[in-house]
Design brief:
By secondary structure, the chain is an alpha+beta fold. Helix content is 40%, strand content 23%. The protein is built from eight helices and eight strands. The strands form two sheets. A four-stranded antiparallel beta sheet has the order 3-1-2-8. Strands 5-6-4-7 form a four-stranded antiparallel beta sheet, sandwiched between helices. The protein starts with a helix and ends in a 5-residue tail after the last strand. The relative contact order is 0.17.
Length: 238
């Protein structure tokens, strides 16, 4: 069980290294989270989650501070969170989460990305029921047994704990995200390789070799869209 989280993160960071697109997406997400509640991560859990994710992607402090300051100044930009569900080649399932200040633009660009790359949009609920919202925390420097013991001592309810490429991964319910992190922090662990609230497919599928390149093009096209924050799917990709 596992999605090779570090490989996924490295691929995204490498693709966006020259354009800093990943930083721009985080800046927007931080701004929206800070504006929806207090611009203080200690009293705004949504903001705290985003900042923990940003830390694992090495988002510069200047970008984080700028986004929070913008939210404090009550900027007049309003963004809507929208989720799109669709299908790729061979019926692969895809979820696209967006933040947008222009719903029509976003709908049009997401639909075009699907149609130009062998996919099609579905109706709300057509795909999401096959995914589970999950908190994912990854760290190095501790053994599997040590992490299991930490979770037991902290009385944190987790779904799964396993090793993936020298990283110990913890899957938990979304509302346990902070409890898992606090358990680690109380043990002196403050650095994480992965800290995500994500959608995990209940069953991953393998695509035929001739369909995989087109599916990868679809995912890249969606991730490249300005309004897209996260893309989830059920395809095994190395």
């Amino acid at each position: 069980m596992g999605r090779k989280w570090n490989n996924i993160k490295e691929k995204k960071a490498s693709k966006d290294a020259n354009t800093s697109r990943i930083y721009a997406k985080f800046g927007l997400e931080i701004y929206v989270a800070a504006k929806k509640g207090e611009p203080d991560p200690e009293s705004n859990r949504a903001l705290k989650v985003v900042l923990e994710r940003a830390k694992t992607y090495n988002v510069p402090r200047a970008i984080i501070d700028r986004a929070i300051e913008k939210a404090k100044s009550s900027g007049d930009e309003n963004y809507t969170e929208l989720r799109y569900e669709g299908f790729g080649p061979n019926g692969a399932m895809v979820i696209v989460d967006t933040l947008t200040n222009n719903v029509n633009r976003t709908a049009s660009s997401v639909r075009a990305a699907f149609s130009k790359n062998g996919g099609n949009l579905g109706v709300s609920g057509s795909v999401a029921y096959m995914f589970d919202a999950t908190a994912v925390i990854g760290l190095t420097g501790k053994s599997l047994d040590e992490v299991l013991e930490l979770m037991l001592e902290a009385d944190v309810d987790v779904r799964d704990v396993f090793e993936e490429e020298e990283t110990v991964m913890v899957y938990a319910e979304p509302d346990q995200f902070h409890a898992v992190q606090e358990a680690f922090k109380n043990a002196g662990i403050t650095e994480f390789t992965v800290a995500e609230l994500t959608m995990l497919a209940q069953n991953d599928v393998s695509l035929p070799a001739d369909s995989l390149p087109q599916f990868e093009k679809l995912i890249d096209a969606l991730e490249d869209l300005e309004d897209v924050q996260q893309v989830y799917h059920n395809v095994e990709m190395e």
